Amino acid sequence: MLKPQQVQQSQSSITTLFPISKPFLHGSSQVFLPVQASPFFKTSPKIRISIYHNNNIKALFGISTKPTTKVKAVITVKPTVISTISPIDEIEDLLGQSLELELVSAELDRQTGLEKSTIKGSAWRQLAKDENENIVYKAEFKVPESFGEVGAILVQNEHHSEMYLNDILLTGFQNGPVTITCGSWVQSEYTVKDKRIFFTDKSFLPSRTPDGLKRLRAEELANLRGNGQGQRKASDRIYDYDAYNDLGNPDSDREKARPVLGGKERPYPRRCRTGRARCKTDPKSESRSNSINYLPRDEAFSEIKQAQFTAKTLYSALHALIPTLEAKIIDNDLGFPNFTEIDKLFNEGNNVPLPPALEEKPLWQTILPRLIKGAIDTEKSFLRFETPEAMDRDKFFWFRDQEFCRETLAGLNPYSLKLVTEWPLTSKLDPAIYGPAESAITRELIEKEIGGVMSLEDALREKKLFILDYHDLLLPYVEKVRQIKGSVLYGSRTLLFLNADGTLRPLAIELTRPPNPMDGKPQWKRVFSPSWQSTECWLWRLAKAHVLAHDSGYHQLVSHWLRTHCCVEPYVIATNRQLSAMHPINRLLKPHFRYTMEINALARQLLINAAGVIESTFTPRKYSMEFSSVAYDKEWRFDYEALPKDLIKRGLAVEDPNSPHGLRLTIEDYPYANDGLDIWASLKQWVTDYVNHYYPGKSLVEYDEELQAWWTEIRTVGHGDKKDEPWWPVLKTPDDLIEIITTMIWVTSGHHAAVNFGQYTFAGYFPNRPTIARTKMPTEDKTEEDWKFFIEKPELALLRCFPSQIQATKVMVTMDTLSSHSPDEEYLGKHMEQPWAADPVIRAAFERFSARLREIEGIIDARNANENLHNRNGAGIVPYELLKPTSGPGVTGKGIPYSISI
Fold first, then answer.
1. Is 135 an annotated catalytic residue?
2. 26 catalytic per annotation
3. At a CB cut-off of 8 Å and minimum separation 6, what does 682 contact?
4. Which among 98, 166, 821, 861 has the fewest CB atoms less than 10 Å away?
């Protein structure tokens, strides 16, 4: 064996022989020695020497030219809403000042136990873009063979403007290419000095993090958490919590003061902290004087959105168009004089001059292509609403009681119907304040309406009675809302009966007004039923308009805003704060949280804020958000957000191992439940395959420190007002995790799609779902004058009860925009995330999931074609497609996006 000192003696003679023209091929011992680089070699070569046992050189064997590996990097920068590259950055690109990259080894140095030195390289912009019109940069690295596997890359943006880094592809490694999916804004070094950390697409549990990446994993999470201090800047990526203390604007108008939501008095989920200054007139509230509504930079939309919808275009459209409508319709209380005038909104349009923000044709065509129509022979444009599909199929659909009932199962709000299990119906409110607790709906009335088919007891036992119950939730707000001009509210109960053919029919509506100690009026309650008699028939229609306003308000404020947008935001915050970007659960959830925080920030700015669209057009007006807080306190439970448990809770299903998905539906033809359970099962199987791959042992979940911190933070901070509730699921096993994750994904995808994308279809013609009732029932405190007007002009009495012209058109513009899919919508199961594709097991599981969703599309089509399913098939009936996974762009009434992005 060659001794160290013998090599030392021979080294000087060897270097004098370099370079050589031909190697020798003989020898009995070998050793590699480094030689200084020369013009003949781009890297430091190694010489192999053969030595006899007498230590004399016998032969010199060739030169190895692979001590380093040439690695090439292709970096794609996605064009964005605002131009990515400024003129000064264009110049700097030409001068070679663009992106500085550093490769990070996943391994520690074996000799020192420290992190290995990074490998640095500069990126140069290419002239040509890629096939997706991304801007392309390239870089080269010389990576030593001892460097090991690349685990991350550090990026420094030397431009003066931020860049949206899409991904980085490294090629040249012996084991194949390495992909780093970034999907993130990288700030200029002039704005943020710290280098950005991006990990490769390999996912690791905390306990299995490569040693060379442990520090960076912890550092990146610390960066995202911030220190909870100061006002956030637009360039920040910090996720933190705050109460809903920014809905009011008392500094501009005391009438716009609103209570803080979140805390013991008004429980509510938390939203993202902005750190803005407090109001001068209310130190509990955040000032809105600064128009910048911070959200972490990576939560913003990144792509150029041509001919499509985004949160920003919604803001532009509503911010520009609604004031124009208000100027056009000078009298805010003016109603529609007849139904012909309502029809004109669709047939003829409204000659509304375009505001300056919409004057440029490309802009308004992009933002509201369905609403603003250009006249063929002039340069003028006017507002004309597209006819909603429900109205297009049946002009009088809104008038029919059958449709009123059908939509509780296959309409915009399939979340309120409940089975009646107790009789008599009784309020849980304090009778000393709200009057007698027992309902005015009697046994005799029910058995009369059933028509002798069965007794009340039989109907209860056979699960034939169902209810829309807004009595206890709304009754405390009745007197408050009535003090607002043009607003009337009742507590309501609506009872329905299940027919033998699987359809529902209405039995009774009860409207209640509590006692008013201010004017001495006692409790008023009255029951209305369908009737052939003219007066009772019109009273029924008016009562139904009130109930529809209640259902519309509950749908928008609870089924839609609270249960999806609002309750999901804490999941987004906790995921970014506690789960590393390389955590597999982070990567599973990421597409389901995309853009949710931006649309929520917009909602706080324009839709749910004081005097915003919701407060001005929906029951219960200025108390809308406070009402949703009450609903959160009394009704929201995380475990009940799972579709099967929600159905069981409402009495719409029972567990049955012999039925599909282990549930037997109380109403077999329940389109939302039928389609939803198929989607739920496919989601759960996909999540099961994913979780079991990364957690093959049960104890791995319990001892995953990031995962446990994530779940703890969701319960104790994000939903901290309910932290002590006993119903929170435990998180100890993979099965626990599967149920929790499936519930979250269902809410962001199927649940949201079911309550959002049918808004214009079912409510675009507002008489079908009026959002507010403006007049009281003619029988309440009946006066001779009011009764005479009702008897002589019942149609006009109904029109006066409906929303005003400005209220109706505001809602229609909003619903049309909110119901729209963008052309590049990311639908459930269609697009595979790159980190999923990087693992063959996960890729195969996703492909099975995607195939199942395609199969479900065909099943839904078959159900809609089945003439025996009367709740989704029939003359003039809109087929139930809200849970069909894919869709084309625009207002289609179908399609399930991954996330709540609108």
1. no
2. no
3. 829, 849, 852, 853, 856
4. 861
